[in-house]
## 1
Amino acid sequence: MNILEKIVARKKEEIAAAKTVKSISDLEKELLFARKTVSLATALKQAEKPRIISEFKRKSPSKGVINGAVDPAKVTKDYANADAVALSVLTDIDFFGGSFGDFAAARQANPGIPMLRKDFMVDPYQLYEAKAIGADVVLLIAACLTPGEVVSLSEKAHELGLEVLLEVHNAEELKATLCNSVDIVGVNNRNLKTFDTSIETSIALSEHIPDSFVKISESGLKDAETIQRLYQHGYKGFLIGETFMKTVNPGAALADLQNDLSQFSNQNPLVL
């Protein structure tokens, strides 16, 4: 059993337990369930420069603890002040150290910015959870879902007013799972078998993603030159977590990158 299979198996246990505590009807009564969502896809479509989706992540299976003692409200507020287009907050407990508490703190501190519930979504119940905690976008990972599950979960997400980010790692996953009920396609540059990252993954897949879908790149993004290069290949958004979270001040790290992006763009307006 690989790490993804372990995570999904554990997730199904968590969902079964959660259903005994709160029904879907209970979730629908939560205060934030009625909240009008904010569109990340629209913000990215309108972007005239690379936009950063900044992630709050305490740990990961590959790196262990990255930054365990940080305050989600402060970090995400700093991200927003540094012009993040959206926030991604982990809610997986066992493998990423996330929680609904982290998401709630970030949501309260940033009521108007799009927020992605970053988790392993395998059951419609989780979509109701996402809506109830104030998420705007949910993640569907092609590697742990069948094509049929992607369709059914993405359609249900739309019924609830949530946008869908479909994450793929290769051309096979993209071809099998891309459907009209997906809003954003995220190419993860991390090899799930080796955990190595290569932006060539995003470059190779860029021409296979129809222009009707917003494209974002994920993992292994550390510098302005890389981001600008991918921007020239049609990527509008860039999801970055570890690069920021491993620093003492993640918000300041984002601000520094934004400054580097601005300078690099001015110096290299036609970089390909």
## 2
Amino acid sequence: MDSVVAELEGSLVKDPDPFSYFMLIAYEASGLIRFSLLLLFWPIVRLLRLMGQEDAGLKLTIFISVAGLRVSEIRSVARAVLPKFYMDDLNMDAWKVVSQYDKKVVVTKTPRIMVERFAKDHLMADEVIGSDLSVTRLGFATGLVTDFGTLSGRVAKLFGDAKPSLGLGRLSSFGNSESFMSVCKEQCHPPFTTSHKPLNGYVDRPRPVIFHDGRLVKRPTPANALLLLLWFPIGVPLSIVRIIISVIVPVWAIPYETPIFCGSLIVKGNPPPPLSSTSKSSNGVLFVCNHRMFMDPVILSYALGRKIPAVTYSLSRVTEILSPIPTIRLSRDRDIDAKKVKKLLEKGDLVVCPEGTTCREPFLLRFSALFAELTDRIVPVAVNCRVGLFHPTKARGWKGLDLPFFLMNPTSVYEVTFLNQLEHKDTCSGGKSPYEVANYVQRLIGKTLGFQCTNLTRKDKYRLLAENDGTVRYNKTS
């Protein structure tokens, strides 16, 4: 069996300095104070590195970022937040080499708890060798690590008499890269090329990150982290002003006001006119849109220039109170929700997001078929958005902060594309089943946005983000 032992920092991921990933742990598992404290110590960590004391600098970073935290919190951030940023920084040249081997082992001096989920779930690694956090009997991290700097011995123990086929890593990594690579038959240093050992010539793609959590849009390198901290005193009052404006300004006027506050709303397509009293139809239009963030129905109303009620599942009470449009909470009981939506459609237009939860990445979750059973007047709406600093919607944490964080972004761009109303032949009245209609609408929206359709659901998302065993079938795409 061909095997490879690959270094994470500076090899599998481009950045050789793991500092920004500890900043993520500090922010998401603890808060702004620990985040600021760790950034304050960054010059000392950098100085130790320049003096050749990389291990001392790393141990100091680990201590500040995790000391006193529950290990369950660290594990949760490593599961739901870190994989997205590791994947964004993945070195595809190194991956093309690693992916051709049957057995993959990742080595790192970062605590194994931070790396293991990404390496095993997305890089299909068989083993991860790294340092381990020292933990108290109550489940709190002491900030100290064990098995630090013993990579070569642990690699040799793992493989026994059979040496790994290839060692992949930098010439120097924390002063110890050559030691683990010395037990391998061959060594590969940057720049990495697939010609080193083509094997069967087939290169797997890493499993994509479909679900992730956390507030930060950009990886908090020292420069990004400093800009973030400097923005908070500006962003908080700006958010308050924007909330006040959204409450007092009429919906039709919002698109004209957003450029003043560095926002942008792009509207494409031809939405249907509002239901008039002389209309032959007795029901309103059901706008069916994908779900990028909790603001989607509100932005759709802005695009239409009129208030369109929206049905929701888990919107916070604070957001409901401040919402400029009517929101109707559903119960997730299919019969009760169907009756409620039918009554709302008899009164006028309505917005629904059949994914049931948000997805930040370019994927669409499986659409619930309930909407297709309730009306034939269906208008698909493709929604996309880009924010500058903060993700507003977060699975973990208090949902009441979603709106303030969204409005704290220095810039935001929303793009709303209205597609044509479904023809009669594509609805349930035309002979289609509800599932066929839902899948058809999903494909229409996916094609418009360039997103990949999947069979993943809300339950899959929260299983991955909230449970210890969060393995999800990432190949559930359609």
